[in-house]
Amino acid sequence: MEWREEGILLSTRRHGESAAIIEVFTPSHGRHAGVVRGGTSRKIAPILQPGAQLDLTWRARLEDHIGSFHVEPVRSRAAAAMGDRLALAGLNAVTALLGFCLPEREAHRALYLETERLLDLLEEGDLWPLAYLRWEVQLLHEMGYALELDQCAVTGQRDDLVYVSPKSGRAVSAKGAGDWAERLLPLPPILRGVGGGPDAEIAQAFVTTGYFLTEHLARDLGGKPLPEARARFVETFSRRL
Question: pTM score > 0.70 for this model?
Answer without folding.
Answer: yes
